[in-house]
Specification:
This protein is of the alpha/beta class. Strand 4, helix 5 and strand 5 form a beta-alpha-beta unit. The longest helix is centred in the first third of the chain and has 45 residues. The radius of gyration is 26 Å and the shape is globular.
Length: about 475
């Protein structure tokens, strides 16, 4: 009797609950549709037609840190220059949070850093809420916090300028549905690195300790399970928002594989290698090595934890240990990189302490934030170019080392393995390694080769890097974004 009464009570509540849910969904749909219509009216009001009666096509790039000097910014400015050369009736817009600089200063900075000169002016939309995508704001659940923060930042951008074509060039995929469904834009994106990847899921699932998976998590099965569930839920959301994109460009085969597995956007996804300034390094004369008293091994990368500089130092120490005292030439490891903040500087100090512990301080040199000309000098004199980051999404530093004429030794994963240090015309372009022993063995092998053999590898590596030039980027980028302009 009690059970029957409970059942009738549940049934009597079910119908109103369904009605309220339906009404709520209808209200949300009407609200979103109203917002879309309001944004379209605002767009027509803020973007009037020109003298010829035609309104220019607004192409907007979402790049909150456009005044930085990294590889992602080089992609941005090359992309804008390419579109300006191809399409005449367009206005390029950049959403940025760099409010400490004027638009003219940002464009001048792009020319000074990358030697990229734009043919037409760019409209800058300065955003006030960039702090919402700062990792420091979210000490826990950082991926989710930054992604939700990007939605609010994207909404600010949309309110200030409604474009015709929207391209996310910094990896804020959660802004894509906002601009597509509310802004009514055709949307595309250039993915440098997936926010979450199947490799990240594997690291947590296998309880491996990494720079982004702390030991206290891997040592606790319960916390590891919780983090794994969180990662799977985030990957599901990431796949949903990414699938909204009309055009997807990725920077390497490694990134392609991960994006396809999570976003499932095979029909509109293509690899567009980032533009590397290879010509500057190709201008370094490539000559047969002369006999010297010293042989240098050079690493070029920012002093960030994922670059794994300790692996370089440990492998080098092992190489020196196996290299008989007095054997000529003597070896020197030169670590070249940038420090962005105090944490990076402390990381360099820790690396110096590691050198002291291993007894190699006299053979390791640190060169921090050096001028470009000094960088070229070190690369021109180096025998080996060293790279140790696991699953580097592309590896511009690897390309630069090869173009400069070093024999590259890179990590056997990610972009270096799949795209860069691969045979060219059937000939070897460099070497790959995975662990301390492996790196020490490969360095010893490279040093044991005759100068003539090393020169052959260096020449072939140089020929192979032309596929990462500005010109190749322009061709593949235009082919990829063409559907957005139809």
């Amino acid at each position: 009797m009690v059970a029957g009464g409970t059942g009738r009570l549940l049934c009597s509540l079910l119908v109103p609950a369904l009605f309220l849910s339906g009404a709520l969904c209808l209200c949300v749909a009407v609200l979103l549709w109203g917002a879309r219509l309001w944004l379209q009216a605002r767009k027509r009001r803020l973007s009037p037609a020109g003298r010829d009666g035609q309104r220019p096509v607004l192409v907007a790039f979402f790049h909150p840190y456009c005044n930085a000097g990294g590889g992602g910014e080089r992609v941005l400015w090359c992309a804008i220059r390419t579109l300006q050369k191809k399409y005449k009736n367009i206005t390029c817009v950049v959403y940025t949070g760099d409010r400490d600089a004027t638009g003219e200063e940002i464009v001048e900075g792009a020319f000074r850093r990358f030697n990229i000169k734009l043919t037409h002016p760019v409209k800058f939309v300065f955003l006030e809420k960039r702090y919402l995508v700062e990792a420091s704001l979210y000490p826990h659940f950082t991926l989710l916090g930054q992604s939700l923060g990007s939605v609010f930042l994207g909404w600010e951008a949309l309110l200030k300028c409604v474009p015709d074509i929207y391209i996310d060039s910094m990896g804020y995929a959660f802004t894509l549905p906002l601009f597509k469904y509310l802004g009514g834009c055709r949307v595309g994106c250039y993915v440098h690195y997936p926010t979450i990847s199947t490799d990240m899921l594997s690291v947590v699932r296998n309880q491996d300790t990494r720079f982004n998976n702390a030991a206290f998590i891997t040592n606790n099965p319960l916390i590891s399970k919780f983090k794994l569930v969180y990662y799977y839920l985030f990957a599901f959301l990431y796949g949903l928002v990414g699938s909204c994109s009309d055009v997807v460009m990725v920077n390497s085969s490694w990134t392609l594989n991960h994006i396809l597995s999570i976003w499932r956007t095979g029909a509109c996804t293509s690899v567009v290698y980032p533009p590397c300034d290879v010509q500057t390094f190709l201008d370094i004369p490539l000559e047969e090595e002369k006999s010297t008293a010293e042989c240098s091994i050079v690493s070029v990368s920012q002093f960030r934890p994922e670059k794994d500089h300790p692996l370089q130092i440990r492998a080098f120490a092992k190489l020196l240990k196996e290299n008989r005292p007095g054997q000529q030439p003597s070896l020197k490891l030169i670590l070249i990189g940038g420090c962005r903040n105090q944490q990076d500087e402390e990381r360099v100090n820790n690396l110096k302490r590691l050198c002291e512990e291993l007894g190699v301080s006299g053979s390791v040199m640190f060169r921090v934030n050096i001028p470009f000309e000094e960088l070229k000098k070190h690369l021109a004199e180096a025998t080996i170019g060293l790279h140790t980051m696991w699953n580097e999404h592309f590896g511009i530093g690897v390309v630069e080392c090869m173009a400069a004429g070093t024999v590259i030794l890179a990590h056997n994963s990610g972009g270096p393995k799949l795209d860069i240090v691969v045979p060219y015309e059937g000939r070897i372009t460099g070497f790959l390694a995975e662990n301390e022993d492996n790196y020490a063995e490969k360095m010893a092998y490279i040093l044991s080769l005759s100068p003539e053999k090393r020169l052959e590898i260096r020449e072939n590596a140089r020929r192979s890097v032309y596929r990462f030039s500005d010109r190749h980027f322009e061709e593949t980028f235009l082919l990829s974004v063409e559907p957005l302009f139809k």
